[in-house]
Amino acid sequence: MTRLIDPTLLRTLAAVARSRSFSRAAQQLGLRQSTVSQHVQRLEAQLGRRLIARDTHSVEPTPEGEAVLGFARTVLDAHERLERTLGGGAVRGKLRFGASEDFVQTRLAEVLRDFRASYPSVDLELTVSLTSLLTGQAERGELDLFLGKRLVGETQGLLVRRDRLVWVGLPGLAPGRDEPVPFITFPAPSVTRSLVLDAFARESRAWRITCTCASLSGLRAAALAGLGLMVQARSLIPEGLTELHDADLPRLSDVEFILAGPGLNREPGRTLAHEILHAGIWD
Predict the structure, then answer these.
(1) How far apart are CA 69 and CA 14, in angstroms?
(2) How many Cβ atoms from other residues are within 10 Å of residue 212's Cβ?
(3) pLDDT digits (tens, 9 = 90+) for 240-255
(4) Maximum separation of any 2 CA atoms in the chain, in Å
(5) Phi/psi class of residue 243: alpha, beta or left (left: φ > 0; alpha: ψ in -120 to 50)?
(6) Half-sphere exposure at residue 70, Cβ-oriented, CA atoms within 13 angstroms
(7) How many CA atoms lie within 13 A of 123 on its CB side?
(8) Residue 2 pLDDT exceeds 50
(9) Are 189 and 196 in contact (CB under 8 A)?
């Protein structure tokens, strides 16, 4: 390869892969959609590989695109750290950060560990709860920034990723069409719970709640015990559980993950938001 790859092109590729949309990537980056398309095309031409598979229904990284994304995150992380170092101005202060239960088994813990190591002058406080409760805390001034979920079509916060909700559980435990669906769920108020109950009503499907727990680890334990089925974003399926592809279950909608809160546009929240946005915590 005779030319270095422009980090701007890698940043655009990462945004498209996260949001699964050229238009949403453009909103994230503050660019025109045509510019985002041009960036991806330039990168594909430079590498001689198709990186994004596009059709009328979906936008997904190709296997080659996934490989490039792995390297891109390393390059972008180093690039951003260099810019901050040369830019000067230590990040400091108190940051009250909240995270939805959905993220407790992702790489978020690593991101927070690295953030604390890189910015020792930041006093970081972590709250783990349901998105609806985190939203209320942020509105009351009790949180500066949180990572949570929103319904498709809502405008709260900064979009991080869009994903499909899927049914998960142990293989072979899906009920027949005439049987109630045994549902393992977060308590109300829960974005996921509301979407699933809407799906049951829309398809006139019988259901029963077999476990309610406010922690993802508790829901996972119940699912592993065979108490029922749970719903989770496809990229966040807990270890040991399987997506039930062929089961006759209500079709579920997409969900969007967001960063939100009054600290999104001020330090040190802005720096942590940047770290989360570019860290690939779903990997």
Answers:
(1) 6
(2) 16
(3) 999 998 889 999 999 9
(4) 64
(5) beta
(6) 6
(7) 2
(8) no
(9) no
How far is the C-alpha of 105 from the C-alpha of 32, rounded, in Å? 35
Q: How far apart are CA 52 and CA 159, in angstroms?
A: 20
Q: Closest Cα to residue 99, out of 142, 141, 133?
A: 133
Side-chain half-sphere of 3: how many Cα atoms within 13 Å?
9
- Report the alpha-carbon angle 29-153-26, nearest 5: 15
Find the angle CA(260)-CA(101)-CA(244) to the nearest 5 degrees.
Answer: 115
Q: Helix (H, G, I), strand (E, B), or coil: what is residue 264?
A: helix
What digits encode the pLDDT tens for the residues 176-221? 888 999 999 999 989 999 999 999 999 999 999 999 999 999 999 9
Instruction: Report CA Rg, the chain.
Output: 20
Q: Which two tokens stand for residue 68?
A: 């490039």
Neighbours of 48 (CB within 10 A): 8
Strand spans (E) along 141-203: 145-151, 158-169, 181-185
How many angstroms separate the CA atoms of 51 and 68, rounded?
8
- State the burial class of residue 202 (Cβ atoms within 10 Å of its Cβ: 0-12, 13-18, 19+): exposed
Whether residue 7 contacts residue 79, with contact meaning beta carbons closer than 8 Å, is answered with yes
Question: Look-up: residue for tokens 């959905």?
Answer: 102
